[in-house]
Amino acid sequence: MLWRYDTMRARSFGAQLKPDSALLSVLGVKRELRLRGHPVASESATGRLKAGLERRLAAAGGAATLLARRKRPLTLLLVLDFLAAGQGTFFRGVAIDWSSPPFGAAHAFYAFLWLSSARAGDALRLRAAAVHVRADGVSVTPGVSKTDQTGKRWGDSPTVIPFGGELDAARYLADLLVARQPALDTWLFGDTSGACLAKPWLDALLAHCLALVVPPGEARAYSAHSFRIGAATALFAAGVSLHLVQRVGRWASPSSASIYARSSERLLAQPMAVLAGLPV
User: Fold this and answer.
1) pLDDT in tens, 168-204
2) How far is residue 68's CA from residue 84's CA, in Å, rounded to a whole number?
């Protein structure tokens, strides 16, 4: 555990590695060793080491050094705003037109991320054959993912997105299929050549559009993962149970979903009012 903490690097340059990250890495190795019949140290031993590392970090830099630095959640309003603001602006020398390639595919991609709570990497691996247009919307058969690497867990539970709403992802997906008439084995979110849209290009396009509607410097606080975080937060704030949030976003467990479902001030206002003796 101590060796892993000393040799493991944080994902962000210059960031302080959290003891939790080292612990998860060690637990993964221990799990594999245990499956192979090798003796391993008890979970309590590694837990005590993690607690000791956390105390050392807190003493040196304060409790804030232990807080996870996560991307901000998007909201439906912010998604609608950045899509509207991006239309007609120039990105890498090309005017953005959400109705023409490759921006049309990017537009459908962003809308799908919000409505499906999917991971960006999982969405980019989808093929056109995964989408089925119905009278009331579209169904998207999930592929393999981080929590379902064989497709066995969620493969019989497609994501069904209805037509309509302020962000009509179902219509964008249906129009994308009609406009491109792709073969079933082509990438769903691809360009005119059939190549899958590049994640760095989509990230840069997202940052460009967000910079048009958020204060200077704040666009970097968002990423494609912000769709997933924001969708979980919105569902949780609307009263959807964590079990259903888990199923929508295909998390491994409700506890995993709870990490993403951020508690907003508005969500916490009612219990605070009850405790303060205020009308609710």
Assistant:
1) 999 999 998 887 665 667 899 998 888 999 999 999 9
2) 32
